[in-house]
Design a protein that fits this description.
The chain is built from nine helices and eight strands. The protein has a single domain, classed as Rossmann fold (3-Layer(aba) Sandwich). The protein has helices at 15-26, 33-42, 46-55, 63-74, 92-104, 119-127, 167-181, 183-190, 203-219, and strands at 3-7, 30-32, 82-86, 112-116, 129-132, 138-140, 159-160, 194-198. The longest helix is centred in the C-terminal third of the chain and has 17 residues, at 203-219. The protein is α/β, with parallel strands linked by helices. The protein is globular and about 45 Å long. The structure holds adenosine monophosphate (AMP). Adenosine monophosphate is lined by residues 11, 33-34, 37, 54-55, 58-61, 66, 87-88, 90, 94, 164, 173.
């Protein structure tokens, strides 16, 4: 399947979880700007340190460095026939940069599933979320618990709570989403690419709805 998919939606709605499932089902790479920043942080790069100063407060990392990082990732051969973008674009400037980047590869954003859920659901999901140190697999203490507490089912690494998943930061992230990222909903709706998905449903149901949305793009 050759396709560039942008998963749009507030923090905690399940973009990362669904992106990982879709990556397995479609063979497309999962490109998460948040994971890329966390990787830089783990490797103690200058970009990692810069990103951390924004991430820990729930603010967005500046567009120029974010765009350069994603451009670099999308230029790798595994993204040649598409990618599942999670957490990027997050501002109108990033959306325009993505369009230009893909045009360079004679490609475009094919579909934008917009996953949404009420704020209470987001806060509960984020504050109960646990993330795997090695590869960023995500679990939830109540809704998606690992087989063994504190241990990733997939690679056995430690599960931890992201600093920005603490409640105070979670509220700021949702506010930042409303101010800076929500305008992308109408941007992609006007382009006829938006497909609305109810993210308050169980994981399997959301996946079904997403797969149906992708099939429609393939056959259209
Ligand atoms: P996420 O893992 O998608 O929740 O992202 C975690 C944090 O990384 C965000 O709160 C931002 O500080 C930063 N970040 C991730 N993606 C972007 C982006 N596209 N633009 C700016 N900052 C980002």
């Amino acid at each position: 399947m050759a396709m560039y998919i942008v998963l749009l939606g507030p923090p905690g709605v399940g973009k990362g979880t669904q992106a990982k499932i879709l990556a397995q089902k479609t063979g497309l790479p999962h490109v998460s700007s948040g994971d890329l920043f966390r990787e830089h942080l783990k490797n103690q790069t200058d970009l990692g340190r810069l990103a951390q100063s924004y991430m820990s407060k729930g603010e967005l990392v500046p567009d120029d460095v974010t765009i350069a990082m994603v451009r670099d990732r999308l230029s790798r051969p595994d993204c040649e026939s598409g990618a599942i973008l999670d957490g990027f674009p997050r501002t109108p400037v990033q959306a325009e940069a993505l369009e230009k980047m893909l045009a360079e590869f004679s490609a475009q954003v094919d579909v934008v599933p917009y996953i949404s859920a009420p704020d209470e659901v987001l806060v509960e999901r984020l504050s109960g979320r646990r993330t795997c140190r090695a590869q960023g697999h995500v679990f939830h203490v109540r809704y998606n618990p690992p087989a063994k507490e504190g241990v990733c089912d997939y690679d056995g690494s430690e599960l931890y709570q992201r600093e920005d998943d603490r409640e105070e930061t979670v509220r700021r992230r949702i506010q930042v989403y409303r101010e800076q990222t929500a305008p992308l909903v109408s941007y992609y709706r006007e382009q006829g690419k938006l497909v609305e998905i109810n993210g308050a449903q169980p994981i399997e149901q959301v996946t079904q709805d997403l797969l149906r949305a992708l099939e429609q793009v393939e056959t259209s």
